[in-house]
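dumping this here so i dont lose it
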């Protein structure tokens, strides 16, 4: 039995891996993929020819339904909240405490710069607290 030192064993494995990688690269170059005449050329299928008398139709973009609870302040929520995000974000939330809804509207104003007036903010907060808070959750 012949014993090879650890360093020589690592060197031997590295040499074998390098030789195998070189053989793969050489084989690929012989396929013609790297021939000078092929460089920079994309080989792809030609697009389908469209006929001038064909009729093409696109269906309507699916608009999500608004399933917010009717009530005072709903129009303000649709106008101001719906400007930046879908009103679905409101219904996707678990029922939140009244103070959290107030903080959320404040965050939209202060952090995200929604520029909602104080009177409108109070209406939005009242609507959210009335219909989507833990106090009034059905």
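and the seq i came up w/
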């Amino acid at each position: 039995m012949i014993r090879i030192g650890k360093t020589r064993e690592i060197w031997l494995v590295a040499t074998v891996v390098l030789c195998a990688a070189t053989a793969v690269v050489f084989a690929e170059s012989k396929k013609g993929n790297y021939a000078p005449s092929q460089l920079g050329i994309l080989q792809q299928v030609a697009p389908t020819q469209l006929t001038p008398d064909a009729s093409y139709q696109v269906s309507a973009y699916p608009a999500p339904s608004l399933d917010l609870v009717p009530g005072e302040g709903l129009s303000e929520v649709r106008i101001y909240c719906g400007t930046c995000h879908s009103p679905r974000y409101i219904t996707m939330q678990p029922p939140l405490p009244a103070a959290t809804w107030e903080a959320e509207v404040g965050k939209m104003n202060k952090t995200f710069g929604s520029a909602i007036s104080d009177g409108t903010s109070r209406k939005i907060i009242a609507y959210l607290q009335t219909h989507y808070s833990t106090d009034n959750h059905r």
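The helical segments are 6-30, 74-84, 88-92, 98-110, 118-132.
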